[in-house]
Design brief:
Layout lengths: L4 E7 L2 E6 L2 E7 L4 E6 L20 E5 L2 E5 L3 E6 L3 E6 L4 E3 L14 H9 L13 E6 L5 E4 L13 E4 L21 E6 L2 E7 L5 E4 L7 E6 L4 E7 L3 H12 L12 E3 L7 H13 L6 E4 L20 H10 L3 E6 L3 E2 L5 H9 L12 E4 L2 E4 L6 H17 L3 E4 L16 E4 L2 E4 H4 L3 H16 L6 E3 L11 E3 L7 H16 L5 E2 L1 E2 L8 H11 L5 E3 L15 H31 L4 E2 L1 H4 L13 E3 L3 E3 L9 E6 L3 E4 L5 E3 L2 E6 L7 E4 L3 E4 L13 E6 L4 E7 L13 E8 L2 E9 L7 E6 L2 E6 L5 E4 L2
Parallel strand pairs: 18-19, 18-31, 19-20, 20-24, 24-27, 27-28, 28-29, 30-31, 41-45
Antiparallel strand pairs: 1-2, 2-3, 3-4, 4-17, 5-6, 6-7, 7-8, 8-9, 10-16, 11-13, 12-15, 13-14, 14-17, 15-16, 21-23, 22-23, 25-26, 32-33, 33-34, 34-39, 35-38, 36-37, 36-39, 40-41, 42-43, 43-44, 44-47, 45-46
Helix pairs in contact: 6-8, 10-11
The structure holds ligand MIG.
Amino acid sequence: MFGNLLSYEKDGQVIHFQFAKGSGQIEVITNTIIRVFSGDETIHSQAIEGDKRQEAVCSVSHVNGSLVVRTKSLAVYISDDFKVDFYDNQNHSLCLDYRGVRHQRTVVNTEELALMEKEGHAVNSNVGIHKFEVVKAMDGDESFYGLGDKTGFLNKRHYAYEMWNTDNPSPHVDWVKALYKSIPFFITLKKNYVYGIFFDNTYKSYFDMGKESEDYFYFASDNGNLNYYFIAGDTMTDVVSGYTYLTGHMPVPQEWTLGYHQSRWSYKSETEVRALAQKIRDEHIPCDAIHMDIDYMDSFKVFTWDKSHFNKPQNMLSDLGKEGFKVVTIIDPGVKVEKGYSVYDEGLENGYFITTPEGNIYTNTVWPGEVVYPDFGKSEVLTWWSDKQKFLTDLGVRGVWDDMNEPSSFNGDLPQNLIFTDGNQKTDHARMHNVYGQLMSKATYEGLKKYDGRRPFVITRACFAGAQKYTTAWTGDNHSIWAHLQMAIPQLCNLSLSGMSFVGTDVGGFVCDTTPELLIRWVQFGCFSPLFRNHSAMDCIRQEPWSFGEEVLGIYRKYVQLRYKLIPYYYDLFFSGEKTGLPVMRPLVLQYSQDENVKNLNDEFLVGESLLIAPIVEQGAVRKLVYLPKGTWYDYWTRDSIEGGCAFVREAPIDTCPVYVKAGSILPTWPMQDYVGQKKIDTLELDVYLGNGIYHHFQDDGESFSYRDGVYNEYLCTLANRKLTVECIHNGYFLYYEWLCIHFEGKTVTIPFNQEKIEITLS
Ligand code: MIG
């Protein structure tokens, strides 16, 4: 395609290459991050904000007919046809372009395909019509991870996916190629090597991780630029940090958002919501948030409230607030076409809605009937939409849940040629589709930040790479089926590896009827997932915690309480995550990359480095085959120590979710509360698992941005043999703990704590 390599020009860290039939460039972003680019430079990134380039020494030289760009860590070879090969500085190959002929595993003729289609099968029609493809050679031992929100298993080897935000109401099974989010980033793990590739292109794109052939994998796109980042690292955590360095770190969330959220499509009246809140408190299910689905609105008009069922929403929200409940409201992008409805009128007057190529305002059908779609890519529209959040914050709404933003309609995908805006550039739906939800959640984030002032809490269904800067996410309309509980673990782990740290599934399952057993096993998993919300569809069986009687309620409560006990641990992970860019929920392969036993481990995960969760995800199962990596672990329930590096069977009756704690861990815990902040906490309580380790604990107001000005305390806890030291290494917050309480080996010691360094021997 590019032809022979003719010449090059080095301009600092950017090296331009001239080929017979085109040009391309290599940009040294850091010593370990290289950008490969060819195309239209006026298309700006939707994922990367600001200039990420760091000063790095690089050189260009000729080697055997190729040019080689060297940094401290990498050697990048550029040859004819813009072939790009990555080596480390010891000349070990990391990632090479494939030079053979592409070959399909299956060749079917079009008549046969047509017959299959006639019978109702969805046929594989992807036959390589891409604008360009990047085909990389495989050695045979690659595993692939990441790719954002995808179906199936942890390791993506042998599967193919597409990036095109899709609202697909049918069950999300293994072969479904696209869901609501598109995060074109993956990690390749080989024996002794690991790297990541971020393909920064918003058009519909394709990722074939060795489905077509054992000799290569590829990524491709319908349009846009050849524009990818090669991210090297010594470890998989380096690669994830490299990716989040580029696309942004997730800001620390408000502490209450780490609590339990109760939702349903829909709680339809003030009476119902108040009764729900009362029931939650009566049943002693700790809970911080109630979510209001579309029926709180007047005729599904966004930024309105149905006054006939909610007399004074402001009073309701303030009364709920006194009981510790925060209310989160859903918002869809579709604006009802109705003269006299201010959101519609303003948008119409100012030209804020998407148009057809002929210049007419485009309409489609969603909940409110006929709707128009805001053109979020236009900066005035983004500001307008963020200002709209004031309607909600003025009433006391504490979080916004952005739905239907693929964008979705009742008639399938919107046409690709609709006119959208990108900054001040006129463009089309094909280019903006995958970032529509991202821009909507960015507008929401900015609005909440401006009008509420606290750290915004946004949940989105659709997004693109880099969304972690503004929003949390849930995995959309899963089903109340065991396959979806199983899938939830790899799905959230891969989202986490793709930068999205604050993610969750609808606990209990959204579509169709859950069962008591499925709900229990789901809450046992869900209480450890970062975003912990029970949500279900209007036509299905109720699945609030008390829906199935006392036994289910008791077990449900036990796991919600466990989550509340561990909130400080989750909060610390988010706090350090803003600095490191590492996720809260982690597949074992992230921390134990060279352990063959975890490369395809789909039914266990870590929370940070200390907790290992092995939930039951099979109907009827009352025991589980647990694998623990090498090292010493403790059974959370019995405190028995176990040597890892092996698999064993753990009994797991219906009230038990197997949980393990790594030796040397320190877990900060809270006493039981009905909601975050109910009690004044004056004691730093540490659950200590003997061994060697260090731990950082953070204390601040849990809601404002003042931690960024140093208004927080940081405690460094060090455990060596049986000696524990606790020291306040940053003292910027005026409140502090008065007592230090340590639990270990079934014993408890409590001592006064005055912010000085404390050193004790645990005996
Ligand atoms: O077409 O607002 O994924 O969580 O309850 C359904 C109603 C629209 C889809 C969301 C779901 C929500 C539902 N919404």
